[in-house]
Amino acid sequence: MKELILGKKVEGLRRRDAAILYPIKRPEPGIIMYGFDLWRAYEVSWLNQKGCPVVGIMELIYPRKSTNIIESKSLKLYLNGLAFERFDSRDEVSVAIKTDLQSVLSSPWIEVRIYPDDEAKAILPVEIEGISIDGLDTEISIYKPDPELLKTSSEKVSERLISNVLHTNCPITSQPDWASVIVDYTGPKISHESLLAYICSFRDHEDFAEACCEKIFTDISLSCAPERLLIQCLYTRRGGIDINPLRDSFDVRFEDVPLIRHIRQ
């Protein structure tokens, strides 16, 4: 952790430099899980061959089975280095980024998309469908993750529950991270009040977005024994980047899952 550049003052780059990308090894999850990580970068710019700036929004998608994740500030610094680089096309930029990230992530595949302004409507915020649990009249007193808060009944259901109050903290800077959480499952009915209390228990927890999503997935899997479980955490942007991990009990392709974006992102 002490080697991460996230908490350090660094000079900005004026060229693309893959060496700035800092990998973080994924921890072993302890249980079987699948899924992918979706990052959106809203501050991507480069020069065309005449030196005129071009802007876009980038989506980076890579699977849970990648060996590493990317430290967020290193990715931002890397993307900032594109600002004075000249490229022939948007596709050339995408290929360059994909090439640099492939080896750093040690991933079987990576998807990089860059949307120009006239295509940005493809990632406009949407209303997330499901049952919101945030309005429940629930007493909250625990602010460290506690899976014992989770309660189920004998009733079997399929439902999609949503909360917009997840709050965690960066383990390097202790800065707050905010997220919406989607819990889509089939199995013994999870008490909505207990799920809200559990999500609120992360409020003083420090970890990376991906690890928080995996802890939620693991705790619900072990405590509630669902037949099927999908967890999405839609973190609001910080430093021009939002991070959206998705974990599933079955192998899932990102092409089969709507890559939704919440209004707060």
Task: Give a short summary of the structure.
This protein has helices at 72-80, 90-105, 192-200, 209-224; strands spanning 23-25, 34-47, 53-63, 68-70, 111-115, 131-132, 152-169, 176-190, 228-235, 241-248. It is of the alpha+beta class.
CATH superfamily of the largest domain: GTP cyclohydrolase I, C-terminal domain/NADPH-dependent 7-cyano-7-deazaguanine reductase, N-terminal domain
Low-confidence stretches: none
Helix content: 10-25%
**H/I helix tally:** 4
Mean pLDDT: 94
Rg estimate, integer Å:
19 Å
* Secondary-structure class: alpha+beta
For the largest sheet, list the strands in their spatial order. Answer: 5-3-2-10-9-8-7-6
How far apart the termini lie comes to 27 Å
Q: Can you tell me the CATH architecture of the largest domain?
A: 2-Layer Sandwich
The share of residues in extended strands comes to 25-35%
Main beta-sheet strand count, sense and barrel state: 8 strands, mixed
Descriptive keywords:
two-stranded antiparallel sheet; single chain; 4 helices; GTP Cyclohydrolase I, domain 2; elongated; 265 residues; eight-stranded mixed β-sheet; alpha+beta
Structure explained in plain terms:
The protein is α+β, with helices and mostly antiparallel strands. It folds into 2 domains: 18-123, 2-Layer Sandwich (GTP Cyclohydrolase I, domain 2); 131-256, GTP cyclohydrolase I, C-terminal domain/NADPH-dependent 7-cyano-7-deazaguanine reductase, N-terminal domain (GTP Cyclohydrolase I, domain 2, 2-Layer Sandwich). Helix content is 19%, strand content 33%. The chain contains 4 helices and 10 strands; from the N terminus they run ββββααββββααββ. It has an 8-stranded mixed beta sheet with strand order 5-3-2-10-9-8-7-6, covered by helices on one side. Strands 1-4 form a two-stranded antiparallel sheet. A hairpin with a 6-residue loop joins β7 (152-169) and β8 (176-190). The model has no long low-confidence stretch (mean pLDDT 94).
